[in-house]
Structure formats: structure tokens, C-alpha cells
Amino acid sequence: MTANTVDFDASPNNLEPFWMPFTANRQFKKAPRLLVSAKDMHYQSHDGRTILDGTAGLWCVNAGHARKEIAEAVGAQLTKLDYAPAFQMGHPAAFQLSNTLTQMLPEFDHVFFANSGSEAVDTALKISLAYQRAIGQGARTRLLGRERGYHGVGFGGISVGGIVSNRKVFGPMLAGVDHLPHTHDLKRNAFVRGLPEHGAELADQLERIVALHDASTIAAVIVEPVAGSTGVLLPPKGYLQKLRAICDKYGILLIFDEVITGFGRLGASFATEYFGVVPDMITCAKGLTNGVIPMGAVFVRKGIYDAFMNAPENTIELFHGYTYSGNPAACAASLAVLDIYKRESLFERAAELAPYWEDAVHSLKGTKHVIDLRNLGLIGAIELEPREGKPTARAFEAFLGCYEKGVLIRTTGDIIALSPPLIVQKTHIDQIFDTIGKVLKAIN
Ligand code: PMP
Description:
Elements: H1 12-15, H2 25-30, E1 35-39, E2 42-45, E3 50-53, H3 56-59, H4 68-80, H5 92-104, E4 108-114, H6 117-134, E5 142-146, H7 155-160, H8 164-167, E6 177-180, H9 186-189, H10 205-213, E7 218-223, H11 239-250, E8 253-257, H12 271-275, E9 281-284, E10 296-301, H13 304-309, H14 328-343, H15 346-362, E11 370-376, E12 379-384, H16 394-404, E13 407-408, E14 410-412, E15 415-418, H17 426-441
Parallel strand pairs: 3-13, 5-6, 5-7, 7-8, 8-9
Antiparallel strand pairs: 1-2, 2-3, 4-10, 9-10, 11-12, 12-15, 14-15
Helix pairs in contact: 4-14, 5-14, 15-17, 16-17
Bound molecules: 4'-deoxy-4'-aminopyridoxal-5'-phosphate.
Residues 116-118, 121, 150-152, 224, 228-229, 257, 259-260, 285 line the site of 4'-deoxy-4'-aminopyridoxal-5'-phosphate.
Family: Belongs to the class-III pyridoxal-phosphate-dependent aminotransferase family.
Cofactor: pyridoxal 5'-phosphate
Keywords: Aminotransferase, Pyridoxal phosphate, Transferase
């Protein structure tokens, strides 16, 4: 075994012990794709390819790869204070980061740290239940999600999530969960640029669920403002505003899962800013550390933390937390990347590039197999006509074809999803869409 991954022997035996997540392991290990280094917009693969990163890793490397400032900050933190107990003890970086984060979103006055998007989601769901109880609404135990929602892989997240393959073999899930319909409507909204015109009325389905269960039993609704992992499903104009209004009417907490939309993806700090809709909690991860150290967080709106602090003081206020909540190295990485976002105005940069990105996405109209194109900020999707009777979706073939040609894209079912680092240049955008166009033409 060698510590130098560039020299790694990628023969099948060496690849076998790693049970890869969300991966067709048997296929992959016959024809592996290993990334051995990265810089700015590009990866290098073990077989010598230079690959343009069209997906910011997994929607997370917003400031581009191998940023020296982050490495130096993490290195300095590790040699100064490598770890501090997370319970009944503190360290400066966690407080500093909480201050910096809450300054980004003034309506939110506290932050709870986790280690991933999944943990942030489960944390937010648990805070919802505990908060309702703290304000004397302990019968509010139901949690609502949405069809085609992705909220990570914890039992809370898959319960409120709406992806059948992530749920079907894992038993009955959390009790007391219901789902709103998704908002994806190819018949009415195909090829629309930006937000769909049709579908805001789908938020009224929350009224139906309230009528069925009674508001007094419902703690919270969680939605991704833009559903990313199931193929970039955009909220119809007015939908999120309506959802907010109905939640307000019935005392239901609204959680935005901004694991993807947080930290500049839409050309604003968060989707809450982009849409002008303020939820009660925001979950985030990914861009929080530029993906380099696992970290998630939950922002809570003013009043939520206070409800816990105003309860009779007898013991710990919230029985929840992780060994690595506010981990020093993760905090240092986050502080460094937040500084880069600000110094390089990367969120504004994303907003400036968005019209060019939109034109590039929609330049694929008329390309073979393409049945929809979607864009917002620096996020995009290409939906392909489903292929009947063949095991491999066209989108996955496109992924393999683009990889061969040096562009990393992401696929889910029949949809290609794109989300480049926010440092992307126009020439990179051109390369991404030229490559996809050529690859699609060659697919049957
Ligand atoms: N929520 C959303 C909206 C996500 O997109 C993701 C990850 N793609 C998660 C939660 C889960 O994050 P993680 O993989 O860090 O657990």
C-alpha cells in the first residue's frame, strides 16, 4: 500500500474492500474513475485525464478546488487546537463562525453545527419537535416533506424525503410523516427559462394535509427551495411565498433545506435571500466548508432558541449534538471559505454569470433526446426522454461520454444536473455545453 494515491494500483482486488456509496459498485470496479488531484476548475484522473468540474464536486466546491487559504487555515487550526470536546466546552472558532454565519442572514440568530447535510436535516426536524413542545404545542409531532424531495439519508431525512429507491428497503420510516406533491410539470413548464410560471397552487396541498390531520398535530414542513438531487426541480413563481403564508396561518414551522442552494449557488447568499421568503430554519452543508471538511449547520430564526432559554432552567436545553459539532478544523475551513466568498464576491459573480449560463443551458434546445432544460443562478438541468427497455439511462451514458471527453456532469435518472464552481469562466461554460451536445448526439 502506498500513501501516494497517484501511484495507486487500480486493479480490481485493490478496489474491492471499499463499499462505495450511491454507486453501482460492480460496474465501477470493472472500469474505475479515480480522481487523484484537483485545482480550481479541474480534476486530474488516475488515467491521466484533465476533467472540467461541471458539478462543483457534489454541489459543494463553490470556491473552486484546492484553495490554499483553506488548507493553510485548517493546517494552522490543527497545529494550534486539533480537537475540543463538543459538549460543555467551547473553542473560539465555533463562536466566531456562528457570528459570521448569523451576520450573513440577519433574521437568524443562532446556528447549530452538525457534520453533513443529513445530520443538519435530522437536527432541524428534532429542533422542530422540541420547539413545539417548548412552546406548549407538544401535540405537534407530524413532519411534512415533499415527493421527490431529498433530505439526506438519516431516518428522518429519508422519511420526509420523497425518493422511493432511498426508502423502499428500509422499513416503515418515521411515524407521522406526510408529503406534499412535487412541483415538476413538464406539460406546463417545459423549456421555461428560470422559474416556472405554473404550479404555485400546488402549495395549497398543504391546506389539504392540514384538513386531514389538523394543524394542531403538525410541527414542520421541510422543502428544498430548489430540489437539487432529484433533477433540479424549480419552485413555480409564488409557490414558496404561498407555502410560507399557509405555514404562518397554522403555526407550522417551515424549514428550507439549503444544502445545495446555500452559499451562492443561485447568485445570492441563500435561497431565502433569492426568493425573499424567510423560513424558520435553514439547513446547510456542502458550500459551508467548500466541501473540504464534513460540516453541516442549522440556522434558526429569532425566537426559536429563546423559547428553549425561556423554559425553566433545570438541565441541558436540547438533548442533541455530535462529537464533531463545531469541530475546530471544520470551523477553520468554513471561516476561510466564507472569507473567499466575500473577498472574491463569488455570490455576486454567480448572479452576473447567470444570464450567460441560462443562454448556454437553453442552447441545447432541439438537441437529440432533450425534453426539458432548466436553469436558475448557476444551476442547470437537462432532462432526456426516458429510454424504454434498456437498463442504462441515456443520462448515465452521457455522464460516461462526457467523462471520456473531459467534463464532469451529474445524473439522476433521465436528468443531467449541472452546478459548476462559482469561479467558472465563460469558456468553461461553453466547453460544458458543447461537450454535452456532442455526446447526446452520439447516444441512441
Ligand atoms: N439535503 C439536500 C438538499 C442535499 O442536496 C443533500 C446532499 N446532496 C443532503 C441533504 C444530504 O447531505 P449529506 O450528503 O452531506 O448528508
